[in-house]
## 1
Amino acid sequence: MLPIEITTEGLSTVSGLRLQPRRLQQVLGIAMVAVAIAMLLSFLDGNLSATIALMLALFMLMLSLWFARSGRLAWAAELMLFTLTGAMCGLTFIAEGIHDTAVLAFPGILIFASMFGTRRLFVTLLLVICTDLTVVVAGNILGWHVNEVQPVGWSLLINALSIVVATSFFVWMMADDLRRALARMKTDNERILESHARIEILAHRDSLTHLPNRVLARDRLEQTLAGARRNNSLVAVIFLDLDNFKTVNDSLGHSAGDALLCDVADRLVKTVRESDTVSRQGGDEFLIILGNIENEEAAAAAAVKILAQLAIPFQIQRLDVSATGSLGVAMFPRDGADADSLLKNADLAMYRAKDSGRNTFQFFNAEMNSSVIEDLHLATGIRLALVNDEFKVHYQPQFDLKTGRIVGAEALLRWKHAVLGFVPPAKFIPVAERSGLINEVGAWVLNEACRQAKAWQDIGINDLVVAVNVSPVQFRRDDIERELANALETWKVRPSSIELELTESLLMADSDHLSSVLDRLRAMGVQLSIDDFGTGYSNLGYLNRFDVERLKIDQSFVRRMTENKQDEGIVRAIIEMAHCLELDVVAEGVEDAVTLQRLVQLGCEMGQGYHWSPAIPADEFLTFYRAHEHH
Ligand code: C2E
Ligand code: MG
Ligand code: MG
């Protein structure tokens, strides 16, 4: 059973205790019956003044019943309470004083007032009652008003019973309401706790195995590392990838695959200490974090233990399924000072374990850090990314600085690696260039950009030029022409709405071959620009020879131009030279309004940068475009 907390909010939800019209009418009914009985009895006793007083009270109660019926609950309740208090006080005074049965009604009246009345009403009634009792008793003691006590008779019993029964009846009703409200509060509370737990699971747990997910694991790792830094202790970060999971999934079906993952999860959890973390990173990958490790041998021992546990066959659909794994171990602090580098290195080590024949573990070590291996690793990743559709193109809006309109979109490649996470282009483009994979990647981007340009044209956005970055490597083979022609043809997009961003270094090579390729590209109708201008030789001499539309000033100058006079000088010089050559200028990396204003003064034609927007997915770009253009 879950603990129930009665919070202040909880109490306000005890709506069952708010006075209901039906309840009030019931209470009034009971009170009227009791008063009517008392009136009848006093009439039979020949007590005329009591009879008249009670008759008056009965009339007032009828009035408050009328209030209750017409929805004025507070009025009805107050009138009823004052009437009953008044009547009972009156009776004690004129009839038998402190010995009168009317005294029995006071607790009931006060209970009702405390539950439904204001505090002021309650205190007032209490004071009236206390005063009445004091006056009556004092009058008798001091002799200025002596009540006559009647001998005990049956009418007394009837009177007492009718008051006790009426009071108990309505106290019971109130208590019942309270119980019901509490029960409802309890279920509400349980429901809240339940949904809290569910949210916790959704946000921090893997839905299949209920192990901590990537987010929670990362958090735990950070915490473990913080602790280890304080205590100067070691932490082992272990990546585990099942060797044959795909086979199980493919041959026995997904439900068998799911069952295997759950069993593996269970075994992993049982293998490590309770304070360690086992998390599922997705697919058949698990991350194990061992805190407070004595030495590397202890980490190795844990890895061996995990491998041994996995080697014991799993019972899946009454079949013995073995699930060996490859483990990569990175140690804090030797293999990395923070979570990112440890995760990356454990992952690298895991790939090495796979390469060295699977069903084994490998420690990360310094050699693996060498760029050769990392390149190899990244190159493999890029190859897989092409197959697995991990690449995306984001678009950064480009603005005409005179009109303020969006005139272009630079296509920028984005790669979210399943394990490494987001890998910046500056990191993988060079690897793709060195390995020659840039040809495939570049072709993919060209095709994607053309598809997007067409999609925008189809919805009536016609004046947008999509700029695509092209690597010099793509010019080594003559594929670029064919790929571009293919993409334009496939998507039936106007060539003038595609711009190729070339690098300075490409043009510096200045071969005859290159100029003829560029001539043919121009002849196809696409536009050309020179990217990152200013970072290379910045020799404008060659610009004459190539038919390019515009120059893009590298963001490093633009970003610093408002603080650094020299950078501003460079920007101004580039703009002036470009204008002499009749080239438009695009400023990259415009991050604030001051820079923008300065660029406008210098006569720069176009700009892009975080001042407006970073590169964003195509759908967000469309929203941004529409909002901006309708502004
Ligand atoms: P780039 O072509 O000069 O692209 C501009 C870079 O500056 C982009 O970085 C962009 O996100 C960033 N940027 C834009 N506005 C601002 C700003 O206001 N402040 C700052 N600090 N940065 C800004 P990103 O996307 O990381 O691209 C880096 C480089 O990677 C690109 O530089 C380009 O050379 C290359 N690249 C990206 N996509 C491709 C591609 O599809 N093919 C080829 N060959 N290279 C690409
Ligand atoms: Mg660019
Ligand atoms: Mg650039």
Note: The first strand starts at residue 234 and ends at 242.
## 2
Amino acid sequence: MAANKSILILAGDGIGPEVMVQVRRVIDWFDKRREVTFEVAEGLVGGAAYDAHGTPLTDETLADAMACDAVLFGAVGGPKYDDAPRALRPEMGLLRLRKELDLFANLRPAIAFESLLDASSLKPEVIRGLDLLIVRESTSGVYFGEPRGIETMPDGSRQAVDTQFYTDAEITRVAAAAFDLARQRRGKVTSAEKANVMETGVLWREEVTKLHADSYADVELEHMYADNCAMQLVRAPTQFDVILADNLFGDILSDCAAMLTGSLGMLPSATLGAADDSGRRRALYEPVHGSAPDIAGTGAANPLACLLSFAMLLRFSFDLEEDAKLIENSVANVLNSGIRTADIMGANSSRVSTGVMGDAILRELDKQAA
Ligand code: NAD
């Protein structure tokens, strides 16, 4: 695969391939209408790879993922694979990709589109203008720390242990990613931990403070206890720009922030690895939603989360801010015009299929680029 703007598409299962068809149309549009061109390869992952090759991720596909500039991922899983051995389940393909590519910074934006304000459970005036980014450490912490397990004691009682564990290097690499991203945004990082009651929280706060003083003094840094951060997210979410958190707190805070904006069908994400000497980071972009077997094949899937993941890819892997904005503005305008898939229907809107939503986005891109 050539080193210049190569993308590996892994559409996966269920609605993954359905939404990816629409994103592929947008990629082709960029190829034809903008200066940038992409070299796109496609591969199988999850249940689709299991059906074809007996494994959710082949070594060849993994090698392609290592060699390309960015992976665009759909979704994996489905009831058909419920009885597959654990090591061969569809999600193991995604987990292996994240592990082998050493993707440690998970990025989840939460953006309130004006025309979807009513989809939020919060009052419109609380979320109007919301545009925040959660950067979650995703390869360490309590989900991976050892020892862990459930033990039966001599008296027959049982006890369980998980270990919250962080090294200084794990903290500083994800914090550096958060500071770098803040520089591309409004220049503020809120670092969330529980330094009041956890040793990992103390180390987290010390390392983030030191890195900030050494290399990122131009960025505003605020420390916040993670429980307060959760409260602030539902009280006054527009105060945030970038929120930095460990694996556990980031998991909870990002789900909380996601729901501020309404539907799963609208939520993109990215996971980034370390930058190499040329500044290139390994990266995987994917919608937050799963394979939605309940609507797969019905043409009801919302392709916008996957499309917005592609916009993130343009921004973070290829530094194409203007092109990313072109997609995001097209999405906003299409929503404003009342065109909606079933999951985001509102009053005075017309319900369209996955493909018709793709048509509307392409028309809007044409209009904006004219
Ligand atoms: P899901 O995200 O697939 O679906 C949850 C609900 O949201 C469903 O009702 C679905 O119809 C709806 N929905 C999701 N995406 C939508 C979209 N783009 N447009 C319209 N509606 C949408 O979660 P689930 O039902 O818990 O899981 C289904 C399968 O997906 C499982 O096998 C699970 O393991 C897998 N999964 C995969 C990923 C991933 O690939 N990253 C993430 C989560 C779940």
Note: The CA atoms of residues 6 and 39 lie 5 Å apart.
